[in-house]
Amino acid sequence: MSPEVRTHVNMKPYRRALALPGLRSLLVVAVLARIPLTATGVTLTFHVVFDLDRGYGAAGLVGAAVTVGAAIGGPILGRLVDQRGLRPVLVLTGIAEAIFWSTAPTLPYPVLLPAAFVAGSLALPIFSVVRQSIAALVPEDQRRPAYALDSMSVELSFMIGPALAVALVTAISAQTTMYLVGGGIVAAGIALWLVNPPIREATTGEPSGPAQRVPRRQWLTPRLLAVLALSTAATLVLGGTDVAVVAVLRASGEVGWTGAVLAIWAVASLAGGFAYGAVHRSFSPLALTAALALCTIPVGLGGAHWWLLCLALIPAGALCAPTIAASSDAVSRLVPAQVRGEAMGLHGSAVTVGIAIGAPLAGAVIDASSPAWGFVVTGALGALVTVVVLPIELRRRRAAASVPPPVEADLTPAAR
After folding, report:
1. CA quadruple 208, 214, 220, 223: dihedral sign
2. Residue from 230, 281, 237 nearest 392 by CA
3. Per residue in 211-234, pLDDT tens?
4. Which of 72, 104, 117, 128 is disulfide-compatible with 348, CB 3.0–4.6 A?
């Protein structure tokens, strides 16, 4: 088969997914809406350090307050989406975002800290809502490329948002940038309100109407908890890698190459996400998380030069987007549509907690030893989680071998 034919065949999953009504516009809104959200951390850090004349530790506390609030608020907002529909939640969170970002630049630090927690709890649920809507818009056999596109769009947002925030702070001021970021977040909420994507399949009832309650014990199964644990493990590895890269380059006197190295890492993730969506079978989030963790462990041994670090990061980078896409896909299959918002909120919290743990953990390890150990410890911890989760998957396989295939999805969706 010629390369041209192979390329054509590999693009088929994406063409089929993007041809579905509503998906293309949802993904476009998702990319644009996530850019200001990905800029919030950097913007708040610069504001606390430059405008409030506090240290980076104080800035980290503000970031931690936002993160803890988001981890707590995500499932609650998801449940509200399930019960009340998308638009009321967008109004609630949009108003909360507008109040916070319009007042935060003038708040003293002791008030900013609790305000950041409240703002995180009522943050615009772009990430979870987009993933919930993909499950509503896309049939199960086409969700893999759809979630791959979503993961790639997240990667693009993280490539653009923080860099844009840094450029704005440098060109204008941190305080003005806060107003611009807040305006962008509110505009994102308005755009999503106008698009109003469905949150459940039309066959399950009214897409935007209230859902019938499903007892949590019926859907919060060991398999779902395993996926959430794997999601936390994956982002713990990613958060640790982010810090360890900076530490390695600083130790070698090449900190100026940090942007280039992180860009290569992101490009590898985009390439991996594209390949994951184009192949003809799905992969287990367990296998992908294990591979991501194991490929991360030796990265710090790649050498003292920035370009060697780039090469060492490529295998792990190529697994980033596929791992997040696979976990999102698994969550969408493991829960009923009526509670998918809460489940996606839990997934978002798992992702947030992983990043929140990974970065300071790597920092503490690096301070106590050397930069290379930041990769080793976070990668090993991620691999340990996969070992803990493995018995759940083995039990599922034994059960599947003894009875007809169940209707409920599992951690290793069958090849499509």
Report:
1. negative
2. 230
3. 567 787 888 888 999 999 999 999
4. 128
Residue whose entry in the numeric block shows the structure tokens 């927690």: 117
CA angle 33–38–44, rounded 5-degree value: 125
Closest to 68 (Cα-Cα) out of 308, 277, 349: 349
Q: Same CATH fold, 216-416 and 1-211? A: yes
What are the residue ranges spanned by the domains of the chain?
Answer: 1-211, 216-416
Count other Cβ atoms within 10 Å, centred on residue 275. 14
What pTM was computed for the model? Answer: 0.82
Q: Is the dihedral of CA 188, 191, 192, 197 positive or negative?
A: negative
Contacts (Cβ under 8 Å, ≥6 apart) of 231:
285, 324, 327, 347, 350, 351, 354
CATH code of 1-211, in short, is 1.20.1250.20
198, 82 Cβ separation under 8 angstroms: no
Tell me which residues of the chain have a pLDDT lower than 70.
1-10, 202-212, 302-304, 396-416
Report the CATH number of the 216-416 domain.
Answer: 1.20.1250.20
